[in-house]
Design a protein that fits this description.
It is built from 8 helices and 16 strands. It is α/β, with parallel strands linked by helices and 328 residues long. The chain has 2 domains: 264 residues, Purple Acid Phosphatase, chain A, domain 2 (4-Layer Sandwich); 41 residues, no CATH class. The strands form 4 sheets. A 6-stranded mixed β-sheet has the order 4-5-6-9-11-10, covered by helices on one side. Strands 3-2-1-12-13 form a 5-stranded mixed β-sheet, with helices on one face. α3 runs parallel beside α4 and α6 packs parallel to α7. It is globular. The two termini are 33 Å apart.
Length: 328
């Protein structure tokens, strides 16, 4: 048994053992599935199998965005993504990420694309603010792309800050609240320098002000960075907790996160997902269709094909395990 599998099993066993004392409650975060590559589909399917088999009850599974890589351009893309998400047996909420509702620059073409993607997302995944309340807690997943990016299009009738305030105000003050969004409201150390997760400081401060008015918000939980992080804020409000991704772009092992809340303390464990054997062929839907003996696997090319470097799918509809595309 490999090391990462042992780590995952020990972590999940530790979470299960918590139930011997005061009963905690638990929820799961998945993030940055970046559907559109066979290896990502494979990892997602493996994670769903693990999550559905967890040996304890889960309040909710929250997807913190970048569900797909190239945006919700069509009903076919969104339908396939929503069908896979629906295979999770626990209650589910989600929010879109910057890859789902892409807005790369100010232009009529990008604005129209943004509006179309938002409409498709809402058709297949539901509203841009989603809540799930249990006897344990209130969970809120919210799209913040409009307020974190200066100049981003404003969707008619959608005010993220007002909707967040409304959702938080509905919770009894003694009930814990957990807020999910895609991009962390903090700086990221990336390529040797700090860069703002939210380029709009005005939007970030307004967001933090809403959170500060509700001390029962225990954490902002996000993805996007494709790595793990926890940030405490000078305003004294809830910390920002960042989980890693399913996607291969930075060469990391895929994982999802199991949170546990007990006696006012939030803790979590990361559960890791094993990739298929080297040389296995994976269908576009994420199933192994062929596994070559190691000695028959072709040697890697010195230069990846242009399509791979761009992060696009293999034209054959399959992909060899072990290949890693360039970052998007």
């Amino acid at each position: 048994m490999d090391h990462m599998k042992i780590v995952r099993l020990v972590a999940l066993a530790a979470l299960a053992a918590l139930s011997a004392g005061a009963e905690p409650f638990r929820f799961v975060q998945i993030s940055d599935t970046h559907q559109g590559r066979p290896i990502h589909q494979y990892r997602y399917r493996q994670a769903i199998g693990q999550i559905n088999a967890l040996p304890f009850d889960i309040d909710v599974v929250a997807h913190t965005g970048d569900i797909v890589s190239a945006g919700f351009k069509s009903h076919n893309v969104a339908g396939a993504a929503s069908n896979l998400f629906a295979q999770i047996r626990w209650p589910r909420i989600c929010c879109p990420g910057n890859h789902d509702l892409r807005f790369d620059r100010a232009s009529d073409a990008w604005t129209n694309r943004y509006y179309r993607a938002a409409a498709v997302y809402q058709t297949f995944f539901g509203p841009l603010v989603q809540t799930h309340e249990t006897t344990n807690a209130l969970y809120v997943a919210i799209d913040t792309e409009e307020i974190r990016q200066p100049g981003a299009p404003r969707l008619p009738g959608f005010d993220p800050l007002a909707r967040l305030e409304e959702a938080l105000a509905a919770a009894p003050p003694e009930k814990p609240v957990f807020v999910f969004t895609h991009v962390p409201d903090c700086d990221d150390y990336f390529l040797g320098q700090y860069t703002p997760g939210w380029p709009s400081e005005e939007g970030r401060l307004a967001w933090r002000a809403v959170l500060a008015r509700h001390p029962n918000v225990k954490a902002v939980i996000a993805g996007h960075f494709h790595r793990n992080a926890r940030v405490e804020h000078p305003d004294g409000g809830p910390p920002t907790i960042v989980a890693s991704a399913f996607a291969t772009f930075w060469g990391r092992q895929a994982s999802y996160r199991v949170f546990s809340y007990e006696d006012g303390q939030l803790s979590y464990q990361d559960a890791y997902i094993e990739d298929p054997p080297e040389g296995a062929r994976i269908s576009y839907d994420g199933f192994i269709v062929e596994e070559r003996p190691a000695e028959e696997a072709p040697a890697p090319a010195a230069e990846p094909p242009a399509a791979e470097a761009a992060g696009t799918a293999d034209p054959s509809g399959t992909e060899a395990a072990g290949k890693r595309p360039a970052a998007p």
